[in-house]
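histone deacetylase (Rhipicephalus pulchellus), 471 aa
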Amino acid sequence: MATTCYVTDNAMLKHWNPLKRWMPERPKRLQVAHQLLQTKGLLDRALILESRYATDEELGLVHTKDHIELIRATEKMSLEEVTLENHRLDPVTTICQETNQCARLACGCLLQAVDAVVSGKCRNGVALIRPPGHHSAADTVSGFCIFNNAAVAARYAMQRYGLKRILIFDWDVHHGNGTQDIFYDSNSVLYISLHRYSKEKIFPKTEISDATYVGRGDGRGYNINIPWTKPAITDADYLTAMYQLVMPVASEFDPELVIVSAGFDSAKGDILGDCCVTPAGYQHMTSLLKNLAHGRVIIQLEGGYNVDVVAESLAACMATLMGDPCDSVTNMQPSASAMQSIARAKAAVSPYWKCLTEEPTPIVVEPERDIETWQIPVLSCPHGKMISSLPSQGLSADLRNLDNVNKWICLTCFQVLEGEIKSDALVEHTVKNHHFLVANTHTLHVRCLSCRQGVIHKEFIPILAQLHKEA
């Protein structure tokens, strides 16, 4: 099985109106990113997929017939006519005679990645596409978006492959109001968005981007907004949100596929976002997401308007999908405003998720025993699904004579680690790789280094049996 698939098409460069040259969503975004992926050798390591166009039936999984026909009609208009129609529909969004074909191609490319990943042809994927999609609702053009690529991909995966639970994770600096609207009543799609928020200044300039909008009906709790109310949001802020809210809830949801609405306008240097996320920050978020859905993660481009920053950030994410180590994040101190935003989001959705409402496990301590070592194990933790399957050839680590109580084996990569549970070796392994679960090679006691507690989970049993056999 290939690790990572990749899909794009130069035909998407034709989505461009020369009468609106000021638009930041321009063809060069794809050109520069594709060239950098090639220069870094990432495309040589990827499974390259053929592009295709989304059909009316596929677009109709999300969009109304009127919306599909409206976009199709622009193909036959003159440049002046299509520009006037563009202004009527949404002055911010580019529409030209080629838009219908380019938008269908963007969506179809993402569906190709879904096919490759869900069918098992590869583990994960990258779709370098435009125009973006997350502002488009069922019947609207909005914010550079024509068709909602991520939403169509989610519905397509459900219809064709019978998937029941899909996570759409949106780190674009702008709220994906279209995606929220499409799945607001659904408990099959968990939509989580981290975005800047101001009803007066930040697009889409609407109250529904706030944390209190959590879904409706069956979808209550399945729409999670983490609204940053201040600029200059950093890696530390995003990763704190990942650890405290995104990953616990996503792990409890247990998705079968993760679609990332990867807008790199939250990156440091973007001309619109006014945030400070680095390529390393995106790498660490990607690495965490790989712990979900058995690693079935698809990154598809949304926003991002500094073409060099988009290219570097996407390349970093693709390298991480391929298994390359993450670069270091230099400062992990979140801001006070970010912590407030995360707290508001947690409070809004905590009634709907056990991982946010369960009381801490009581601790029983024997005399003169370390309090960290002798906690009563819990039956599950938010990271319980992050274990790997046993390698078919068995464990490569030599577990003989590992009777030292300070030796552990990582249940994700099966590396043997030595030291007390709080030692630098274990902490460094956790921070660098986002591997939280370790088993003591002497006692077979499983610990979660993130939750700081012992864990008993039925999925651990085959691995613990193998550890016992090989030790």
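The chain has 14 helices and 13 strands. Confidence is low (pLDDT under 50) at residues 360-376. ok done for today
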